[in-house]
């Protein structure tokens, strides 16, 4: 099956199946004004950090591209981790902005030959990305205990390794069924997003280490598959995004892209059911509220990110019942979390 043979209705059906199971109810903020106020506060502090980097010539990226990278980073952190303090949300947004800048082509491809020797010897990194990341990580990790902090550091290193593979279009071989999961785990940064839920300010890591450690692989799968679910349409239609979860799974397993998508849907639904059975039904009160708020907020983030082109997908569904039902979800969720660009702080001259 080629891309043009994919059915919008089937894609919408899979998304609706997941949303029905989620029973969407994002109450992470009292109202839209409270959400917008938090977005603005985090955006302004994150932008100020990067403006200082630009003035100091520590980052040689066009300001326009930097501002473009800040917005999805801030939205993702505020919506998915809305129970955290403003200072921590700022540090997380700075961290994730580096990845969005890279995705937009703002950093040169780091050399595999120099990266590890520089890292081990403590020499100044020749990788633009890691030079800036290395400077910021101590501040971010100071918010977390040793297990969560090490997880963030290790996952960041894994992303560097996975990005080398993606940039070289290494898609794997037919029959190499483990490769798609391996690559997704490296590049997804899902472990980072999951342990970010548990800073020192809201939970004692030592007392809750078992809860955190057991939850981690389940939340990693949820974060990966929900992102794969909502980014599927955009990624399979983007010529610059040829290496993604759907195409690598399709290639390795010898199935169509539609069958690959159906696998993603089943994994997202199954993982959601597992998390709620084990962690959000009163068995682990210490993490219940944090987990449920992230399950909901992560979906709000994806629906409100225009780069996933979900509005375009809805229009292609026409009068199909699944398109009608997704349109209902889409409009409802956008009322919760989408804001017109004019409502955001405006970029400043640097």
Q: What is the helical fraction, as a range of percent?
A: 55-70%
Count of helical regions: 15
SSE order:
HHHHHHHHHHHHHHH
Mean pLDDT rating: 89
Overall 3D geometry?
A: globular
For the sheet with most strands, the description reads: none
Strand content: under 5%
The fourth-level CATH homologous superfamily is Farnesyl Diphosphate Synthase
Please identify the top-level CATH class.
Answer: Mainly Alpha
Which fold name is given in CATH as the topology?
Answer: Farnesyl Diphosphate Synthase
How many independent structural domains?
1
Low-confidence stretches: none
Structural Rg: 20 Å
Structure description:
This protein has 15 helices and no strands. The protein has 350 residues and is mostly helical. It has one domain (3-343): Orthogonal Bundle (Farnesyl Diphosphate Synthase), CATH 1.10.600.10. α3 (63-80) crosses α13, α10 packs parallel to α13 (285-304) and α14 (310-317) runs antiparallel to α15. The mean pLDDT is 89.
